[in-house]
Structures are given as C-alpha cells and as structure tokens.
C-alpha cells in the first residue's frame, strides 16, 4: 500500500493531519488537474490554478472525513469538487449581473454579451451533465473524469473498475448525448 493510500485511509478515519499530509503530497497533481480545468474555462472565471486548488481543499475539508480507497478515487472526487467550484463562480457572476452587485458600465456592449454567452454555455453543459447523470451515471463519471479531470482512458478505467474499451464506448455515448442535449 502506498504512502498516499495509507494517508487517505487515515484521513477517512478522521485523522486531519494525515489528510493534510496527503493533500500536500498530491498538491502537484491537484495543480495539474486545476490547470487542465481552467484551460477550458479561463475566460469564464477569475480563478487561477492556486485559488481553485485552495478553494477545493476548503470544500474537501468542510465536507467532513471522506474515505478514499486510493489516489485515483481521491483525484476523481477532487475533479468533481473543482467542477462545482467553477460552476459556483459562474453562477455568482451571473447573479451579480442581474442586480446582485454594483452595476458595471462598459463602453463595448459586445464584450458583455460574449461573456454572458460563455456563462450560459457553461451552465447549459452543467445541466446537461446532470441530466446525463440521472440517466446513465457511469457516462457522466467518464465525462467528469476525462473532460473536467483531465484523466487518461487508462486512469478512468482503473478508477471505475472497467476496461479501457468500455471507457471509450462510454465517452462516445456521452458525447452523443451531450451534443443532442446542447442543441
């Protein structure tokens, strides 16, 4: 059993120091995951990779002690948490635009329209992914791990306990579903 797996088991049992140590050991991987996530939505959020990792850490700690059997399961859960952080930032920005904060005045109205369109697109993808999760949970997991988590097919297969070919078929089915849902 690797050191990280041992620390994750101890953290699941309530050892906060072990959780902090595991997070420190996985920090570089979490930075890579955040960089992958923000590469797809950098213009949509004001977050940078460090802020996304730290906000995810706070949510992971705030959620209580969760047991993760290994590094892959932890990284899969971290990808979900990062997705939730980005969605929350987009929703907060939309709420501000609808009168929640001080009104921003811009001379270029085309810029504000393009930002709103991107925000709406992120929320539409999120809603379509939630719908997919209710119909086919494994397909939604494959999308989250591949698109949001940046994991390779082999890593996804190991995390879900299926073959790589099954991951490839699930990815094709999920892409078809999402393309139909986003029309």
Low-confidence parts lasting 5 or more residues at pLDDT below 50?
105-115
Largest sheet: none
Number of helices: 9
Separation, N- and C-terminal Cα atoms: 47 Å
Global morphology: globular
Describe what you observe in this structure.
The chain contains 9 helices and no strands. The chain is globular. Helix 7 (137-148) packs across helix 9 (164-181). The chain has 183 residues and is mainly alpha-helical. It has one domain.
Summary of the model, kept short:
This protein has 183 residues and is mainly α.
How are the SSEs ordered, and which strands pair?
Elements: H1 3-12, H2 16-25, H3 27-41, H4 49-62, H5 71-100, H6 109-135, H7 137-148, H8 153-160, H9 164-181
Features of the shown structure:
183 residues, mainly alpha, globular
């Amino acid at each position: 059993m690797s050191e990280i797996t041992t620390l994750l088991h101890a953290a699941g049992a309530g050892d906060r120091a072990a959780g902090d140590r595991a997070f420190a050991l996985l920090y570089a991987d979490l930075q890579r995951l955040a960089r992958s996530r923000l590469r797809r939505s950098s213009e949509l959020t004001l977050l940078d990779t460090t802020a996304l990792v730290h906000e995810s850490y706070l949510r992971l700690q705030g959620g209580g002690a969760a047991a993760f059997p290994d590094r892959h399961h932890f990284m899969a859960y971290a990808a979900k948490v990062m997705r939730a952080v980005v969605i929350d930032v987009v929703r907060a920005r939309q709420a501000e635009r609808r009168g929640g904060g001080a009104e921003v005045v811009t001379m270029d109205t085309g810029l504000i329209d393009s930002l709103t369109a991107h925000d709406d697109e992120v929320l539409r993808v999120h809603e379509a992914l939630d719908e997919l999760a209710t119909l086919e949970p494994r397909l939604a997991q494959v999308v989250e791990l591949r698109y949001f988590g940046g994991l390779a097919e082999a890593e996804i297969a190991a995390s879900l306990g299926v073959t790589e070919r099954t991951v490839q078929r699930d990815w094709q089915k999920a892409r078809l579903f999402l393309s139909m849902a986003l029309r």
